Amino acid sequence: MKFFHGCTALITGASSGFGVEFARQLAPHAHALILTARRQERLNQLKAELMRANPSLSVYCYGLDLTDCEAIERFVRWLSDEGIRVNLLINNAGLGDHGFFETAEWPKLKAILDVNITALTRLTHALLPSLRSFDSAAILNVSSSAGCLPVPQLAVYAATKAYVTSFSEALRAELRGSGVSVTALCPGPVDTEFGEVASTGRFGRPINAPEALKIPVERVVHEALMGVERDKARVIPGWAVFLLVMFVSILPFALLRIGLNASAAAAEEEEEAREDVASPRPVR
Q1: Which of 29, 103, 153, 216 has its CA 20 to 30 Å from the CA of residue 21?
Q2: Bridge-partner residues for 140, per DSSP?
Q3: Does residue 27 contact residue 54 with C-beta atoms inside 8 Å?
Q4: Are 14 and 36 in contact, with CB atoms under 8 Å apart?
């Protein structure tokens, strides 16, 4: 963790899940942490916890709604006014949907696009001059293994994460030799609040994934930080998820499409069966 000694890190989505764990693992090494999320109370609780364990650490909490473009601009100005120079940007905040695109509510889909794409891109663009002013700096973009292929019932989420991964790779190439590294974190399924927030099906069903693919939040964050330390382009935590992603990546897309179509059809049949149970036809 020598790379992070004395760093000033900005973590978005720091009120839960990966964001909290990034703050906890960086706290013993960092000079300052800037924590942003919509839930200010949770940020304040996390700040108190971190400073009890690390009295010399500076922690700034900023309530920020990443769906609000004007709020993002105010935040960028605040950083400048406070003289805060960030040399580690962790674009962790993300939203998802789980359910058929047709049944999703547009405000939620727009929020996913705003947070996963627009806010991540804007913050990166705004903070890049600060990052480049250091001899060594880093950007860690939290993507997803779902961004490696189209995923029925996660159509918009998977598409936004494909953007994050592609953007990260392109930016990494542009910044090669500048002292600023770029890493994309592509985790598989992890037990966080994401699954609850992401459910948009008509029956509010959670996202189910095989236990063999799940790994603890702590391990995901540790592997991500080690990936930044080693200047890795992409981190896919867990051998099972890594091998699955590699296997899918070499499949001919025509064959992959058959599997995607079968998966979508099965999900549609399951949804219709659940609807029949919830609203049985009258007996005549």
Answers
A1: 153
A2: 90, 183
A3: yes
A4: yes
HSE-CB of 230 using CA atoms within 13 angstroms: 11
Q: Could you report the per-residue pLDDT of 16-74, keeping only the tens digit for each?
A: 999 999 999 999 999 999 999 999 999 999 999 999 999 999 999 999 999 999 999 99
Q: Which structure tokens are listed for 35?
A: 């924590």
Residue position matching structure tokens 């296997």: 247
Strands 8-12 and 32-37: parallel
Per annotation, catalytic residue among 60, 62, 157, 163: 157
For the question of residue 157 being annotated catalytic, the response is yes
Q: Look up the pTM and report it.
A: 0.87
The maximal CA–CA distance of the chain, rounded, in angstroms, is: 78
Identify the residue whose tokens are 């700040």. Answer: 47
Identity of the amino acid at 36: T
Query: Token match 């095989």: residue?
Result: 210
